[in-house]
Structure formats: structure tokens, C-alpha cells
Specification:
The strands form 3 sheets. The chain has a 47-stranded antiparallel β-sheet, with no helix packed on it. The chain is mostly beta strands. It is 2% helix and 43% strand. The chain has a domain of 75 residues: DNA Binding (I), subunit A. A hairpin with a 2-residue loop joins β36 and β37.
Length: 726
């Protein structure tokens, strides 16, 4: 198996005041920063010379940002420093209103209309009413945990503490389509999840854990056993029903899996450059080589099998994809200042995208594709040509209809779609503790397909075989984003399913019989977190639904501008080659880039936190991961005898013992926290004692500097920034 680069290099330079003034990658490409006399960041210039500039008021609050494309964003505040309005580059304003305790009580958005909140004395949401006048009412226990949500058309209840070994843990929840119960082992880790649906089906998922809360086994609803073998903190092999699936694992210096050998002897490998970006990647019958521009955007993917299958890409000044040559076909895209697609072309065929002049809603398309769209008051698409869609009071898509064909969808209290019924056929869905799709089951539990995962990478698709111990197994070959691109049959090594990157935003059908043997193989996973719905051509994407034909979501982002995009409908802000959105909430960047995240803080200095209600944020799946508790950010201490000093080894060891899973206190990404951080920075007199010591990942530690919190999220972070737990 080819070797991989074991070192990732990035260099940082600071001025005499400890401010970051230059970043340089391993290729020598630089990003530079300037500041005013008060320490506010004034400019950011990337390796292509593109500059983002910032303006502040007398209280050092960011009031204006000008992006490299000339787009101007303005921020306004009240006398208590609450952000009260954001005027985006297209001139659309989103306003926020607060009560006397600085609790958000109203939001007026061009995309979702007016949303109002009633809160209790502790700032917790009691009632949320959206622009459709649909209300949700919340109840809490004495510890502030949600126990009941009444949407009017559905009631969800949650109970705690009553499961075996489950004190302080979620014991069960009920929703409109069923009930879920949790079991825990002696260490408080999830050992069993049991789901019963109102349709009559029931299934369970079992978990076994080892040292340091490492997952040793998952028992799937079909009875499939998947075992993970660990050594020195990494997985070294994967077994299916006791039989080898993967072995000879290889990892990068930062702990990412880069290669393995399948049980049939085939090798999957990915090498990286010194910036940590993929440089080569193997698929079942070919190899890809990647090329990048100076800011880290992929500009080429060369296919070893044929030049006709190679790809090249071009970007605008905001890193949005504007050109893609895939084989002999060229695609082009244009955007407005907010990132809404205004034109799309394939070859000589061109389509214009026309938006509401007062919002980011897409009204119609003209040219080679003529279509008209309608929305409800909350900004969810209800009409798409002959496709009609209906939403429940929680704003989730529950029905689609084309002609006489009706499909109904159901969701659990975690927001996961657990069932759909179309043409009299019901499909049930099961998920793991991270929200990844484990399996699909017909009727009352007949196995249709189960996916085996290695972290966020799908590695096998399992179907019914001669018996339960000998299922049919296909190997899944995923790309650099963990998008499945091929399924191969282990014995013949033939590719039996393929989803090629025919169109970058996913507007293409999968090949279900590429080997031509007459046997159709169906696999519905698409971009990370997405599931293909044949009845609509859309992709279910956890908390939203994605339309590959228009390259955007059909619902506004549940967390609004806090997701990091001015258009709340945009998919990964047009950066589809380098990014994904597994939860349908916020862009995830697996490829390291010197990229300016508009709201992520990566190039914004002290970007004001965009407000959103905790009830708008979606369930934190990390709370179920092995039953482990995420560490809190410490208040810290100062002015002691060790003020401004480095930590002694004894304090570092104690901090590591407090956090054996190396969970960064800021981003809460597990296994990344390798540095001991001063909660109150040394530069501000923080003590070198345990009450001021906490673990942080290298990115968050560097991004924090002498501030209270990091200004930008690390690569691979999911969700809004700043996170809700701050």
C-alpha cells in the first residue's frame, strides 16, 4: 500500500502584542492580517491578494464588513451590545429584539418572516411562534431539561434518569410516530437503543464499549455484528459477524484514517500533501489525483483510468464554484452577492434563476429549464411544478405529492426521519448515536440495506444473503468528502453501483448496473448526511431537504444566519467540491483551506455572535456518544502566585486526566484536544494551576490567542459558530 505524508505543516507569525499577522501553508502561500490601535482586525488578505476589510464603532463593535467581491454587510447594536440587525450584501435586513434580560424574543427575517419567543425567568423558551402562526410550547424539569414539546399537531415527551445505570441520562422519548428507549452500561454509556413505531415495527441497536469509551461493537437491527479492534487509540481492523472486512489500517499524523486493505486483498488508500489535503485517492477501478489553488480550493481531479473522466474547477473571489469541466462537459454557475445561484449552464444550455427581490427565496427558473416555486410564510417550498409539499407545525416536510402518488414522512424527537410510506410500501430507518444512517427496513423490519461505518466514512453495504450469518456484502468506495461513489462486489471486484460526479451539485442519477449483468443494485446515500428520495428526486439531509436540480435547500436554515451563510437556502455556500453539510445546518470543510468564512469568524476578527434560540438549534447528538460528558469551559483564575507562568507537568497531567477522551472544550471535537490551554490566557495573568487548565485542540488554542474564546472553528467542525454551549 502506498505510503502517505505523515506531517502537516502550517506556520503562524504574531506581532509584539501577540496578534496573528501571518499564516503560511506548506507551499509558502500566505494570508496576512492588519489591526487598528485597539487590536481590532482591519483587513485580511489571502494568497490570491483578495482582501476583506472591517470597520468598528467607538465601542470596538464590528459595524461593517466588505468582502473581496465588494459586498457590504452592516451590523447594528443596542445599548447593551446585543446585535439588533444584520444588513446583508443584497440589502436584506434581519432584525433581533430582546427583553430586559437580553433574551431574544423576536426575529424578523426576509426568508422566514417573523418568529416570536416567550421565555421564563431563566431565559428558557416557553413558546415559539413562527410566521405561519404555528406555536410550540416547551416544558422543563427542575434541572432545566426539556420534558415536553407541544406543537399542536404532535406532542413529544422526554424522560430522564429512570433507565438502568442512566442517572442524569435521557431514558426515553415519544413522538408522533413512535417511542425510543435507552439502556446504559455500568459506566453510563449507551448500550441499547430500542425503537417502536406506531406502524407496528420495532427494532433495536446494541453497543459495546471498551477502554476510554471506545466503541467495540455495534449490533444492527438485522442482527449483524460489526466489531472494531483498537490499538494505541486507533481502529486496526473491522469484522462483520466475526469475519474480516478491513485490516492494515493507515493513519495520518493528525489521526485521520487514510487507508486500509479489504478482506479480498483490494487496497483503499489516500495520500495527503503537507497542508493536510488529499493528493491521491483510490476507488475500486481507478485513482484520483487532486490539484489545488493557492487558497486551497480543488482546481483539478485527474482520473487515472481516462482523461475523459478528469475534472477541472474554477472559483470566484468568494470561493464559490463558477466553472466545472467534467470530461467533455462544461458547467457554469453565477451568484448574487448573497450566494444565491443566478445562472446555471451545461454546455450551450443555460438556465436563469430568479429570486424574490426582498428575500433569498427562489421564485422561478427560465431558459432551458422553466419552473415556478411557491413557499409558505416560514419560507419552506410548497409547490415545485407538479410537486406539492406539506409541512407539519414543527416545519418538517411530512408529505409530497406528484399527481396521485402521495408519500408521507415521519420524524422522531431527535429530528431524524424514521419512516416514509409511498405506494403502500413503508420504509423504516435506523441511525447510530452520531446520527448516521445504519439501515433501511421494509414493512415490519425486513432488511433492505445496512451501511457499515468507519467514523464518518461508509465502508460496506450489507443486504440479505443465504442466511443471517452470511449476508451479501458490497464494498463502499467513498471520495474525499465521504460521498459514496462506487459499490463493488468482493469476489469479482466488479463495480456494481456508481454515482459519478456528472454534475457538481449532485444533479445526476446513479448507475445501478454499471457492470451490465442485468442485476440492479440500489444505494441511496449521496453527499454526506443525504439520502436520495426517488419519488421527488430530492435528498433528505437530516434537518432539511436538498434539491440537487437547483443546488439549494427547499427550506430555510433552522438556525438562520448563525449557520454562516447570507442565503439561508444555499448549500455549503457554493463550495461543493471542498465542503459538505451532513446535518443540513452548516458547512463542514474536510479539506483544509485558507478560506474566509463569512460568519464563522475565521477572517472576521471579533465577529458578533448571530443570535438564535437554543430550541432552534437541533439536538446535540454528542450527548449520546458513549454516554460521555463533554467538558465545560472553565472560568479560570488569575492574580495568583503562578500568574502568567507556564503549566508544570503535574498540572498538565492532571488536566489530561480530567479529559481522557481529549475533547476540546471549545469545539467539543473528540480526540483532538492535545494541548493544555490557559482558560484565562497567560498574557492576561492567567494562573498555571488546575482551575485554569483545560484541554483544547491546536486550532482552537491558536485561534483563541489572548482572547476569551477562539474566533474560528477548526476544520471538520459541525454546527454554528460560536457554539450554543458557550
Amino acid at each position: 500500500m502506498p505510503a502517505h505524508v505523515s506531517t502537516v505543516s502550517r506556520f503562524y507569525s504574531y506581532d509584539a502584542l501577540g496578534r496573528l499577522v501571518q499564516e503560511m501553508d506548506s507551499q509558502g502561500f500566505q494570508t496576512t492580517y492588519t489591526y487598528d490601535a485597539n487590536g481590532n482586525r482591519l483587513t485580511r488578505k489571502d494568497a490570491q491578494g483578495r482582501t476583506t476589510s472591517y470597520q468598528y464603532d467607538a465601542l470596538n463593535r464590528l459595524t461593517q464588513m466588505t468582502d473581496p467581491n465588494g459586498g457590504i454587510t452592516q451590523f447594528s447594536y443596542d445599548g447593551r451590545d446585543n446585535l439588533v440587525s444584520v444588513k446583508d450584501p443584497e440589502g436584506f435586513s434581519t432584525s433581533y429584539t430582546y427583553n430586559g434580560f437580553d433574551d431574544l424574543i423576536k426575529q424578523v427575517s426576509p426568508d422566514t418572516g417573523t418568529t416570536q419567543y416567550a421565555v421564563d425567568a431563566n431565559g428558557r423558551t416557553l413558546t415559539k411562534t413562527d410566521a405561519r402562526n404555528k406555536s410550540a410550547q416547551y416544558q422543563y424539569d427542575a434541572l432545566g431539561r426539556v420534558t415536553r414539546v407541544d406543537y399542536g399537531d404532535e406532542v413529544q415527551t422526554l424522560t430522564y434518569d429512570t433507565a438502568t445505570n442512566g442517572v442524569g441520562q435521557l431514558a426515553s422519548f415519544t413522538d408522533g410516530v413512535g417511542q425510543t428507549g435507552f439502556g446504559y452500561d455500568a459506566q453510563g454509556r449507551v448500550s441499547q437503543v430500542q425503537r417502536s413505531n406506531t406502524s407496528g415495527s420495532a427494532y433495536g441497536v446494541g453497543y459495546s464499549w471498551g477502554a476510554a469509551n471506545r466503541l467495540n461493537r455495534i449490533v444492527y437491527p438485522s442482527g449483524l455484528n460489526v466489531d472494531y479492534t483498537w490499538q494505541n487509540g486507533v481502529v486496526t481492523s473491522v469484522l462483520l459477524n466475526g469475519q474480516p472486512l478491513l485490516s492494515q489500517m493507515q493513519y495520518s499524523a493528525d489521526g485521520r484514517i487514510v487507508g486500509w486493505q479489504w478482506a479480498n486483498g483490494q487496497a483503499r488508500y489516500a495520500s495527503s500533501d503537507f497542508a493536510g489535503r488529499p493528493s491521491t485517492l483510490s476507488l475500486a477501478d481507478r485513482q484520483w489525483q487532486y490539484r489545488y489553488d493557492s487558497t486551497g480550493n480543488p482546481i483539478g481531479i485527474d482520473d487515472s483510468q481516462t482523461q475523459a473522466a478528469s475534472h477541472s474547477f474554477g472559483y470566484d473571489s468568494l470561493d464559490r464554484l463558477i466553472q466545472a469541466s467534467i470530461g467533455t462537459t462544461t458547467h457554469g454557475y453565477g451568484y448574487d452577492k448573497n450566494g444565491n445561484r443566478t445562472v446555471g449552464s451545461t454546455g450551450s444550455a443555460s438556465t436563469q434563476y430568479n429570486h424574490d427581490p426582498a428575500s433569498n427565496r427562489l421564485l422561478n427558473t427560465t431558459g432551458s429549464n422553466n419552473q415556478t416555486y411557491q413557499y409558505d410564510a416560514s419560507g419552506s417550498r410548497t409547490k415545485d411544478g407538479n410537486l406539492t409539499q406539506r409541512y407539519n407545525n414543527a416545519g418538517r416536510l411530512i408529505q409530497s405529492q406528484i399527481g396521485t402518488v402521495v408519500t408521507n414522512y415521519g420524524y422522531n424527537a431527535l429530528g431524524q426521519r424514521v419512516g416514509k410510506t409511498t405506494g403502500g410500501q413503508t420504509t423504516q430507518f435506523a441511525y447510530d448515536l452520531e446520527g448516521r444512517l445504519l439501515g433501511e427496513y421494509r414493512g415490519t423490519g425486513i432488511l433492505q440495506q445496512e451501511t457499515v461505518w468507519l467514523g464518518d466514512t461508509p465502508i460496506a453495504s450489507v443486504r440479505s444473503g443465504v442466511d443471517a450469518q452470511h449476508p451479501t456484502v458490497y464494498y463502499v468506495w467513498a471520495d474525499h468528502l465521504n460521498t459514496p461513489r462506487q459499490l463493488s462486489e468482493p469476489t469479482s471486484q466488479k463495480v456494481v453501483w456508481r454515482w459519478q460526479q456528472v454534475e457538481p451539485f449532485g444533479n445526476s442519477l446513479a448507475e445501478q448496473d454499471p457492470d451490465g449483468d442485468g442485476q440492479q443494485v440500489v444505494y441511496n446515500l449521496r453527499f454526506p448526511g443525504q439520502y436520495y428520495d426517488q419519488e421527488t428526486g430530492r435528498h433528505y439531509n437530516y434537518f432539511r431537504d436538498y434539491d440537487p436540480a437547483t443546488g439549494r435547500y427547499i427550506e430555510s436554515d433552522p438556525i438562520g444566519l448563525a449557520a454562516g451563510q447570507w442565503s439561508t437556502y444555499a448549500y455549503v455556500d457554493g463550495a461543493v467540491i471542498a465542503s459538505s453539510d451532513p446535518l443540513g445546518l452548516a458547512e463542514l470543510q474536510p479539506i483544509p483551506q485558507f478560506k474566509c468564512d463569512i460568519l464563522g469568524g475565521g477572517c472576521s476578527g471579533d465577529m458578533p455572535p448571530i443570535p438564535y434560540h437554543p430550541t432552534d438549534d437541533c439536538v446535540d447528538l454528542a450527548k449520546f456518544k458513549g454516554g460521555s460528558t463533554a467538558p465545560n469551559i472553565k472560568a479560570g483564575s488569575t492574580t495568583g502566585a503562578t500568574s502568567g507562568k507556564q503549566f508544570p507537568k503535574s498540572v498538565k497531567d492532571a488536566a489530561k486526566a480530567e479529559n481522557p477522551n481529549k475533547v476540546c472544550v471549545y469545539c467539543r471535537m473528540e480526540g483532538t484536544a492535545t494541548q493544555v490551554d490557559h482558560a484565562i490566557p497567560r498574557a492576561r495573568g492567567g494562573n498555571a494551576t488546575l482551575d485554569n487548565a483545560q484541554l483544547a485542540c491546536p486550532h482552537c488554542n491558536a485561534s483563541k490567542g489572548a482572547k476569551d474564546k477562539p474566533v474560528s472553528p477548526p476544520s471538520g467542525y459541525r454546527g454554528p459558530w460560536p457554539p450554543s454551549h458557550w
